[in-house]
Amino acid sequence: xxxxxGKAAIxxxxxxGIGRAIALVLSREGAxxxxxxxxxxxxxxxxxxxxxxxxxxxxxxxxxxxxxxxxHEATVNAALDEYGGLDIAxxxxxxxxxxxxTGELGPEAWRRVIDVNLNGVYYAMHAQxxxxxxxxxxxxxxxxxxxxxxxxxxxxxYVASKHGVVGLTKTAALEYATRGIRINAVGPGFIExxxxxxxxxxxxxxxxxxxxxxxxxxxxxxxLVAWLSSARASLVTGAYYPVDGGYLAQ
Length: 250
Ligand code: NAD
Known about the structure:
This protein is 44% helix and 15% strand. The chain has helices at 17-28, 40-53, 69-83, 107-134, 156-176, 200-208, 218-229, and strands at 8-12, 32-37, 59-63, 88-91, 138-143, 181-188, 240-243. The chain is globular. Nicotinamide-adenine-dinucleotide (NAD) binds next to helix 1. Pfam families: adh_short_C2.
């Protein structure tokens, strides 16, 4: 038991994949959720799944674009209005971008990935930190990637955005370490979600890149995030945790 009862948690990108799994694990552990995503209908589905597991699960849906600062303010305000404060924030919303080599990727495509994946995490934290301070502390978990530590041909914007998230996480962790806010990054390997597409051959090739010989499941990321969000991880801050079936050990 991670004792998250009564804790208020934001999850961005909560309509699908890893974000949905994180919301489900946090709710299972007792947390009250703010489910933020561009896809509000997907968040409603996540909320229905939470309630199917636990009849008294609490969640509120906010339609929010991670690349817009004001939308993060609205998301934090939803936590304040609904739950009276904020204890946990999981910044997970992200996009893969166009698969093109660097010299062929246009500036607009570059900017969109950086706007959502990197600027979005900065905007989120800027909006969340005052609310966490007001509560006397809390935890932020930013979803990076194995590609926050290694390169990948045809994904320079994505790789740069995720390396940026790791650097932002480390720096903010240093800044807030004495003020009760722990800030960590999680680096999933390839996880079976819609972001990977549905070509079975391509999925099998990705699976084979991992020493465990399979793709990860969203819940396996959710379990790590829930632990990092809880007081059980009280000494853990400024860390990057892979959850990647051994990918980065190669
Ligand atoms: P997904 O596509 O299943 O879910 C992403 C969610 O983010 C969707 O619900 C989508 O609507 C939302 N979203 C996209 N752009 C948004 C925006 N501008 N504002 C708000 N919401 C937005 O993908 P996923 O695999 O669950 O990815 C979640 C996170 O995990 C991403 O940050 C991704 O980079 C990261 N990640 C995924 C993998 C993987 O293999 N699946 C690996 C490493 C890291």
